[in-house]
Amino acid sequence: MSADGFVAGPNQSLDEPLGVGGEALHHWMFQSTEDVDRELAGSMLDGVGAFIMGRNMFGGGRGPWSGDWRGWWGDDPPYHCPVFVLTHHPREPVEMDGGTTFFFVTDGIEAALASAREAAGDDDVMIAGGASCVNQYLAAGVIDELVLHIAPVVLGDGARLFAGVGPDVTLEVLATSGSAAATHVTYRVGG
Amino acid sequence: MSADGFVAGPNQSLDEPLGVGGEALHHWMFQSTEDVDRELAGSMLDGVGAFIMGRNMFGGGRGPWSGDWRGWWGDDPPYHCPVFVLTHHPREPVEMDGGTTFFFVTDGIEAALASAREAAGDDDVMIAGGASCVNQYLAAGVIDELVLHIAPVVLGDGARLFAGVGPDVTLEVLATSGSAAATHVTYRVGG
User: What superfamily does domain B21-58+78-190 belong to in CATH?
Assistant: First the structure.
């Protein structure tokens, strides 16, 4: 998240999937040499048995699926387990290298969560993003833990985390750490 | 600041100067028993020779001054030095106990900053708040250092820090610390 609350910049496009300036939000993950960042980046997907993400995060676009676009995560996405993609348009699952299969869910966030939980078994389900997806799950009160990585960046506009979530969500700080590249805060979520 | 970026809740009033839910933003300052919070709260005004704040932070209200309302900081405000209050309506200075005098500045943020710098001498000028005041100075590019205290609170609405500031502001993390009550981040500001 940027210091001003955005998890992607304005004008997201195929060329700039994170919007204008949005790449800078992830410098801590890919460019920082500080231990705190490297350890977090290396372990953040550990213990996750299934992911949920919005269509924008999978590969962008709108309307019915067409062509063979398999998203912008490359042939071997970093997930290595089932990924449930929220969409209004049905599509057959897409199996990638390395154990990642994208499943396309058209019957809402609760259905996606149920499928992800079943797929994950005893492992965790991670709501990966983007903002709209996370905000819907926050508003639904089904997120147990939220990890923010606040980058020293002001984007000015874009996709805002917590938009429409409202004041009923409660947060409890579980852990804080920081580097020059980001401030990391883990919250227990209630409400 | 709340986790969702507000420095005051919605519906600020004489009864709730920080808006609905806004008091919780300051628990780290007044209620936390953790060392990191107590040390920060105890030292945050050290070395400051003059303050600038918006009229809302001084005492609320709109339009020409009337009556003898001396703001909501009590007879002995915590500032103990000159405080320059941004307003559109002229008023004679108000001298309080303990060395605090409120001066009312009607010719804009640059004039207020010049007066505050002169009053502070070799000491620092602190832009105390609220959001609109800080945002104007951020947008003007005259803030050197920004200290955020991010409380584990979602307000949902209110006065938003960084609103209208735009992406030309750059931040560099100088220090990070945290407690159950707040995540503290000091930024050097550029741009």
Answer: Dihydrofolate Reductase, subunit A (3.40.430.10)
